[in-house]
Design brief:
Structural class: alpha/beta
Number of helices: 28
Strand order of the largest sheet: 1-2-5-11-12-13-14-17
Radius of gyration: 28 Å
Shape: globular
């Protein structure tokens, strides 16, 4: 297409946008004349009435008011957002029929309430200059290949994506903008990443192999900054890690960061951690070592220091519509009747009153974290651009933080609503169009029946992976009770799910442990929720039940008698206590428990993930109590700095670090070498007739393996009777028949059937 034609097409598009804006404005004026939504000097995106429909109608008015207030120069901004060659790129992205589909404009309707100003932010953020690949550097053959590649992916998902987007937003122009930017991001994706995408498309099960091992780490705690992490990749490689989850690293306000989950700028790294260039360098270095990089993508909210929030606080109605604002408490009170509190003691309620602008704003988590309004298509589009921005920086896994919360409706609990799944499904398709090598990891901290839907279906998948949260909590319940029955039931539920569903399994992470167990089942055994939670918290603090554990409570609610627990794996296994008391025998017992729990984790269906420091038994760090920015958040007890002075001991088998590192390394090598550990193997539990012993079976392509795990400090016998051949323990090399197996305290076996 010639530049003249491109310019003419662009001009026509601008004209359409201006006309649409005018029509929306006229609609708003008519509504205003009818007496709708007069909220005073500061515009509010919602009318405080008893009906949810009124909420939407006022959003229409205020969006229109914003359009009406725009100076004529806004049209100039639209024209300036791309050079002619950019327009050519956009228009060339699809066959004529596809372009016609995208550009079809329905008559403006009220659902097109956010007929946007085509702000520079979308174009600017969608097209970072430093990432552009000059077209002249590509051969005509490669250009054609890439264009066909993109067209194939785009056409595969176009109909469903448009249908879902229209169902939610009913806004054709915003959908067209989204499609334009998808193509733009694809063009900006470098050749190395595109080649990786192709390989992963050809092998969609690439992440389900038996060599996958993850590690969660805080950049500053682990190595000071991003460059430091890159310098420590050899250590991670030595730890058999090929998937690293970088805990939140984007800009956050000091003292109001929520551990990095209150993002004030989605395109800026915290200054103390480095730059975007450093991040790209790290991801490139990881690719050379076949390591995957995961990051947290905070979709539910922004910091109150985010530019959107600042402009909303100034009374800009367009930016207020990106959040949930109300000038009285009528609708907030409606929400409060049905929406549970996340932090009832430290951050009660779901709204915060802003006295400076006399409005309430929805804050599900902390008062400085403002919930985003995904009913506004601008919010969805911009967050998708942020997602693709990081994909093009070389990120392999996007962890969607707090995903169940991202859609809000009155008279619901605002959890796991159907529109959440629509949003995630669209995100999955957008990824498969632009960057199909990317994985989506959903953070759904709920019981299995609420977690599983986030996989979507085999035909219409959503997340690639989910956390196995309930199993993690049930594992520690098993440690405290020496009773495997609830854990066995939990594993049976997970094992009976489709093999396409991949869970991430872990013992500890950056967060606290909430005791969200299957209490209806426990009630049948006479175990009551409140008293049992109290027992677990007392046990892991070392107060009862012959416990050797150490840790602290988080968000204790004295009224409800509820609290969560914080501590490292090593401290919960007794390594901290044994070390403090210099008790060698107790230390051996604690190390044995720690290794057994990891061996059990490796036997579960899915991908195992370590928490940084667990590979060498790092214990609780109590120095957080000396930091005024951390002292109120007890989770920092397990977020201590990496002890590199102790890491020097990992090759010394006489040290705690060396014993743990060596034994875990053995387990990891076994897992990598035995195909029976692939994610899609058949996995089941076996009745042992011994309350303290768990047995897990695995079968894949003729190979069969039993894992036996003693969760007690006593000698036990697993009363199983497998007589289909001879078995060898992969740990010791000893021949052991899986029938009436004697297991020492906190002992375990990997019994493999011999050919």
């Amino acid at each position: 297409m010639s530049r003249k034609k491109a310019a003419r097409a662009k001009k026509n598009n601008i004209k359409k946008q201006v006309e649409n804006a005018a029509e929306v404005t006229e609609t708003a004026k008519a509504q205003e004349t009818a007496g709708q939504a007069a909220t005073g000097e500061i515009p509010s995106p919602d009318v405080q009435t008893e009906a949810e429909t009124a909420e939407s109608e006022t959003e229409v008015k205020e969006a229109a008011e914003t359009v009406e207030e725009a100076e004529p120069k806004e049209a100039e901004k639209i024209e300036e957002k791309a050079e002619p060659e950019e327009a050519e790129k956009i228009e060339e992205k699809a066959e004529p029929e596809e372009a016609e589909k995208i550009e079809e404009k329905a008559e403006p309707k009220e659902s097109e309430k956010i007929e946007e100003k085509a702000e520079p932010e979308a174009a600017e953020k969608a097209a970072p200059v430093e990432e552009k690949k000059a077209a002249s550097e590509l051969t005509e053959e490669e250009k054609s290949r890439q264009e066909e590649e993109y067209k194939r992916r785009f056409q595969r998902h176009f109909d469903e994506l448009k249908w879902l987007y229209t169902e939610v937003y009913g806004n054709d122009s915003m959908f067209a903008e989204l499609c334009d930017n998808l193509h733009r991001f694809y063009e900006e994706r470098n050749l190395e990443l595109k080649e990786s995408d192709r390989k992963r498309e050809e092998n969609p099960n690439w992440y389900k192999q038996n060599d996958m091992l993850g590690m969660m780490l805080y950049i500053d705690n682990f190595a000071g900054n991003i460059k430091g992490v890159e310098a420590r990749l050899d250590y991670l490689e030595k730890s058999n890690v090929n998937y690293i989850h970088l805990m939140p690293f984007l800009e956050t306000p000091k003292g109001r960061s929520d551990g990095g989950y209150a993002v004030s700028d989605f395109r800026k790294v915290q200054e103390n951690l480095g730059t975007m260039e450093d991040l790209e360098s790290l991801t490139a270095a990881c690719r050379k070592k076949n390591m995957n990089v995961c990051m947290d993508f905070v979709m539910n909210h922004t910091s109150e220091d985010h530019e959107w929030a600042k402009r909303a606080r100034q009374g800009d109605g367009e930016y207020m519509s990106r959040y949930f604002f109300y000038d009285n408490d009528a609708i907030p009170q409606q929400y409060e009747r049905t929406v549970p509190q996340v932090f009832p003691t430290t951050a009660p309620g779901n709204f915060t009153w802003l006295d400076d602008i006399k409005h309430y704003v929805m804050t599900t988590f902390y008062p400085y974290q403002w919930d985003l309004n995904y009913k506004n298509p601008r919010v969805f589009n911009e967050m998708m651009y942020n997602f693709l921005f990081f994909a093009n920086k070389g990120i392999d896994v996007i962890r969607i933080d707090a995903v169940p919360y991202i859609w809000k409706e009155l008279n619901t609990d605002c959890r796991n609503l159907p529109r959440v799944h629509t949003i995630v499904r669209m995100m999955r398709m957008i990824g498969e169009i632009v960057c199909p090598g990317i994985l989506l990891l959903g953070e759904v901290v709920m019981e299995p029946e609420k977690v599983v839907p986030y996989f979507g279906t085999v035909e219409k998948p959503e997340c690639h992976m989910l956390y196995n949260v309930t199993t993690m909590a049930t594992t520690w319940h098993t440690v405290a009770t020496r009773d495997v029955r609830l854990l066995k039931r939990q594993l049976d539920i997970v094992n009976n799910l489709p093999k396409e569903y991949v869970f991430l399994n872990y013992l500890r992470c950056h967060d606290d442990i909430g005791w969200g167990l299957d209490y209806p089942t426990l009630e049948k055994e006479g175990i009551h929720e409140r008293t049992h939670k109290q027992y677990l918290n007392d046990y892991f603090r070392g107060y009862t039940g012959n416990s050797t554990s150490r840790g602290v409570l988080y968000n204790e609610d004295l009224v409800l008698g509820d609290a969560r627990f914080c501590g490292t794996t090593a401290s919960m296994c007794g390594i901290e206590k044994a070390g403090f008391e210099e008790d060698a025998q107790a230390m051996e017992r604690a190390i044995q428990m720690d290794v057994m729990l990891h061996a059990y984790m490796f036997m579960q269906s899915g991908i195992p993930v370590l928490y940084s420091g667990d590979e060498m038994g790092q214990v609780n760090d109590y120095t957080y109590k000396e930091d005024p920015d951390k002292v109120e958040d007890s989770r920092y007890i397990h977020r201590g700095a990496m002890r590199w002075d102790l890491a020097k001991n990992i090759t010394d088998s006489e040290t705690v670090e060396g014993k743990l590192f060596g034994r875990l390394n053995q387990l990891e090598e076994i897992r990598k070498s035995e195909k029976v550990f692939v994610t899609n193997a058949n996995v089941w539990t076996v009745e042992t007739w011994e309350q303290g012993v768990l047995c897990i079976g695995r079968y894949f392509e003729g190979e069969k393996l039993f894992g036996l795990f003693n969760f007690s400090e006593y000698d036990k016998i697993a009363w199983i009777n497998e007589i289909d051949g001879s078995y060898v323990d992969l740990i010791s090399g000893e021949e052991i028949q899986p029938a009436g197996v004697h297991i020492p305290p906190y002992g375990f076996y990997y019994l493999k059937r011999q050919a």
